[in-house]
Each structure stands twice: as structure tokens, then as C-alpha cells.
User: Which sequence fits this backbone?
């Protein structure tokens, strides 16, 4: 078994493992888990149910802790790079005026007009 410190459950995997046994096909490991603890939890579930991981056409045993943990580390690193690239691209778009955010719901004229009078309830 893979030693893990996370106690989070991966509920959707429970429905998949009985259906897809003996292999769980995944195109990339970062699509299966977002972090190393999540990958460890998923690996523990796969080992407990004797399910192998079919990753990009190759079949891996999640019971091999060193190899599976290295795959999880690289997947988390790749996800971090993707987030960084997205943030950089959004910052560039903002600086060029392409990413302006949500449009206001009221026009400038509507904002200038006073709103409807709301009666004030005086305490009795």
C-alpha cells in the first residue's frame, strides 16, 4: 500500500472501480488527482480493490509506492505550471485591456438617477 497522510474520500472512484476493474483508464495523471495526497488516496483505493492504472496506454501498478508517488509529484508540478501560465496570460490580457471583467448591470444614466424611495420603518 502507498503510505498517505490524507484522509479525504474519493467517492466517484467507488462507482468506477467495480465497473472498470481490472483497469482504470486515465489519459494523464493530473486529470485523476490534483495533489499528491489525493493521488495517494486514489492509489490506496485502487490497491485495495486490486485495480491497475492504465495511464496513457501503459499499465501501472499503484501498489508500487515510489513510482506512483513520483508520477503524482510530476502531475502536481504540471498542474502548477498550467495555473501559472493561465495567470500570466490573464495579467497580459488585462494590461492590454482585453480582459475587463463583468459588464455593469446598470447604464451610466441609470446609475446617475436616484433610486426608488424606500420607506423607513421607525421603531414604535
Assistant:
Amino acid at each position: 500500500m502507498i503510505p498517505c497522510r490524507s484522509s479525504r474520500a474519493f467517492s466517484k472512484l467507488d462507482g468506477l472501480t467495480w465497473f472498470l476493474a481490472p483497469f482504470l483508464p486515465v489519459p494523464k495523471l493530473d486529470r485523476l488527482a490534483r495533489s499528491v495526497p489525493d493521488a495517494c488516496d486514489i492509489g490506496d483505493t485502487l490497491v485495495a480493490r486490486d485495480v491497475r492504472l492504465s495511464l496513457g496506454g501503459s499499465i501501472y501498478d499503484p501498489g508500487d509506492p515510489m513510482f506512483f508517488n513520483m508520477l503524482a509529484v510530476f502531475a502536481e508540478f504540471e498542474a502548477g505550471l498550467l495555473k501559472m501560465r493561465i495567470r500570466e496570460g490573464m495579467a497580459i490580457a488585462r494590461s492590454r485591456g482585453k480582459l475587463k471583467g463583468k459588464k455593469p448591470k446598470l447604464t451610466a444614466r441609470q446609475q446617475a438617477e436616484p433610486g426608488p424611495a424606500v420607506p423607513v420603518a421607525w421603531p414604535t
